[in-house]
Design a protein that fits this description.
The complex is a heterodimer.
Chain A: E1 4-7, H1 8-11, H2 16-23, E2 30-34, H3 40-47, E3 58-62, H4 72-84, E4 89-91, E5 109-112, H5 124-133, E6 138-142, H6 143-149, H7 154-163, E7 167-172, E8 174-175, E9 181-182, H8 186-195, E10 205-207, H9 216-226, E11 233-237, E12 240-244
Parallel strand pairs in A: 1-2, 1-10, 2-3, 3-4, 4-5, 5-6, 6-7, 7-10
Antiparallel strand pairs in A: 8-9, 11-12
Chain B: H1 9-17, H2 22-41, E1 50-54, H3 56-60, E2 71-75, H4 82-97, E3 111-113, H5 114-119, H6 128-139, E4 142-144, H7 148-163, H8 166-170, H9 179-202, H10 208-237, H11 247-262, H12 266-276, H13 281-299, H14 301-309, H15 319-339, H16 347-355
Helix pairs in contact in B: 1-12, 2-13, 6-9, 7-11, 9-10, 10-11, 10-12, 10-14, 10-15, 13-15
Classes of the chains: A alpha/beta, B mainly alpha.
């Protein structure tokens, strides 16, 4: 059974406590604590010991997506706390200034593939350059980024063929034309299922879809089904689609 | 357009044969430097959603002194009025600074939408212009600057040809080749041949001798490269076996393979396939010697202009025309040996199976 859950940043941007509260009674056993903005990181690091996280069998941390070269050593220092807990760090490779500084996290550093706006980290060729710099790092596959870069899913296929051995986490959502995360549509569902067989069923999936609390369960079903290898039927009716197992 | 870590297949073939195809090398270098210059001058007019795509000799690495610049701004993303501004900027630069406007057909120099290219395959909406742009996008296109949109569109077009080819998806025929794609490439080649006659009438034979030479050489080579792309799926991708890929990966593996082929020029594809069959080296030498001579003729401004202005009723006993005609016939003779005669390759059997019917 695949561990599945949400990114706190998707549920309540900049407010991990509220996001965790929203997940309290939901069928999730994975969570990504998000510190996408650099000023969120010290707050999260300071609060983490007091957070109620016992329902999660998988926890990861999303490192800030933007910081200055001067801030970089401090960001790394703060992230050491989570690595000490055995939690992996998900990193946007374009955020780094001195990528070699990140080698200290070894295989608890998960490099994420990027969306089409970013200058690096989008394709196999670009990811190869990054993994050459971070040889021990593992991989967080953002399926929505991969689809945005190449909607035919060929690049996603090639990425998983090349880096499948490093794969440890999946980010799932839809990314719209403005590069904003969105709910999983029928088109995205169909596209994700084309490569679902390349994502082992034990790899945790973290949803980055910005949903309100009442939509969480439905979105979990969409995400879980879109990564299933077995056949499921999708029935579309105006305004929504339903999945029949 | 070969990947950095691969040896250029033409260089590999040339070295093995001890040949020296100076004009092919010169035209390639000219194309590479011209694309680099255009990239610098047109910087900022593309984006992650738009690619400046060039076709024809500039994309084929066959750029000679008299070559046109055929280009289009390919849009795959949010529509914006600024796209037209960018088209006007590119048009101005190519016409005024480079002095190389595209050909007269109006197929290029403007906007192209990914939607038409991806969705309108076949049917009455698939216009001559749309078919031409789509097939040339696959067989002879290159990008000036950002390639994101170009690559997405090529892969999505290929995905349609592959996923909707039920014979290929089931691997039901004697050879595992993308027949939907092959049929469209064949349709394009026949359209080019028919349009040759149309232009002959429309333009009252102006430029006839040069056009017929290109039809016999470069346009035919593009078709040949399309055939080889499709045929090679069987012997290179599938290695003749149904078990090469599991069913769930088959479609994407074929799209990836065809996309990688689409990054090669027609001459590279020809050399790449011929490198697999060294027993055909003499045939390879004839093909490339002839093509090298053809490019020399195109690069000779006097000869090119002479052919451009030569009237059809004056060709009898004209030495320059006879020379180019001989090139066309030599090229065809070699292609006949490659595709239409037993030669210890699968190409003859494939052509027999799929080349006509």
């Amino acid at each position: 059974m695949r561990p599945i859950g949400f990114s706190t940043g998707a549920l309540a941007f900049g407010d991990f406590r509220r996001a965790l509260k929203m997940l309290d009674d939901k069928p999730v056993d994975a969570v990504e604590l998000s510190a996408l903005r650099v000023n969120e990181l010290p707050i999260l690091a300071g609060a983490v010991d007091g957070l109620a996280l016992s329902q999660y069998k998988y926890i990861s941390i999303h490192a800030p997506s933007s910081f200055t070269a001067e801030e970089e050593p401090r960001v790394i220092q703060l992230l050491r706390k989570f690595v000490g807990l055995g939690w992996p760090i998900v990193l946007h490779p374009d955020a780094t200034h001195r990528i070699e500084l990140w080698r200290e996290f070894g295989d608890l550093l998960y490099v994420e593939n990027m969306d089409k706006r970013k200058p690096i980290g989008r394709t196999v060729q670009e990811l190869t350059v990054i993994f050459n710099e971070l040889p021990d790092a593992l991989f967080c596959f953002d399926i929505a980024h991969a689809r945005q870069v190449d909607s035919s899913m060929t690049e996603a296929f090639v990425i998983l063929k090349h880096f499948g051995h490093r794969l440890r986490q999946v980010h799932i959502s839809e990314v719209n034309t403005s590069s904003k995360h969105d709910r999983i549509s029928r088109g995205a569902f169909r596209a994700f299922r084309e490569i679902a067989h390349l994502i082992p069923q034990n790899i945790p999936a973290i949803l980055e879809t910005p949903v309100v609390e009442s939509e969480i369960k439905d979105e979990l079903t969409r995400a879980e089904s879109s990564l299933r290898v077995e056949e499921v039927a999708v029935v579309w009716s105006p305004g929504q689609f339903a999945i029949q197992h | 357009m070969t990947l950095d870590n691969e040896k250029h297949p033409i260089d590999e073939l040339q070295e093995r044969l001890g040949a020296d195809w100076k004009m092919i090398a010169k035209a390639r270098e000219h194309a590479v430097t011209s694309r680099a210059r255009l990239k610098e001058k047109l910087s900022g007019l593309d984006s992650e959603d738009t690619s400046i795509v060039v076709f024809g000799s500039l994309a084929r690495d066959e750029f000679t002194s008299g070559s046109d610049i055929d280009w289009t701004l390919l849009v795959d993303g949010q529509a914006s009025p600024e796209h037209l501004d960018n088209v006007l900027e590119i048009t101005k630069y190519v016409r005024e600074v480079e002095g190389k406007p595209p050909g007269q057909e109006g197929t290029f120099e403007g906007l192209a939408s990914s939607h038409d290219l991806i969705h309108k395959i076949g049917g009455s909406d698939d216009t001559n212009r749309n078919t031409t742009q789509r097939i040339l996008l696959l067989l002879e296109s290159a990008t000036i600057g950002r390639r994101d949109a170009h690559d997405r569109v090529v892969k999505n077009v290929l995905r349609r040809y592959v996923e909707e080819d039920y014979g290929l998806m089931r691997l039901s025929g004697p050879f595992y080749i993308p027949r939907f794609l092959q049929n469209d490439i064949a349709r394009y080649w026949r359209t080019v041949a028919v349009d040759f006659a149309y232009k002959q009438r429309q333009r009252e034979d102006k430029g006839w001798a040069l056009r017929v030479t290109k039809l016999r050489m470069s346009r035919k080579l593009t078709y040949v490269s399309g055939l080889l792309t499709c045929f090679s799926c069987h012997f290179e991708l599938f290695k003749g076996s149904k078990d090469t890929f599991d069913e769930s990966s088959r479609a994407l593996a074929i799209v990836e393979y065809l996309f990688n082929y689409s990054q090669k020029t027609p001459l590279e594809i020809l050399a790449h396939v011929l490198n697999r069959f060294p027993h055909l080296d003499e045939l390879a030498r004839d093909l490339f010697d002839t093509y090298n001579e053809f490019l020399e003729m195109l690069d000779d401004e006097q000869k090119r202009d002479y052919l451009k202005n030569l009237q059809r009723d004056k060709i009898t006993d004209d030495q320059i025309y006879e020379d180019t005609r001989r090139l066309g016939h030599n090229f065809q003779d070699s292609l006949t040996k490659l595709f239409l005669e037993e030669n210890d390759t699968p190409l003859f059997e494939m052509t027999k199976a799929y080349g006509v019917f």
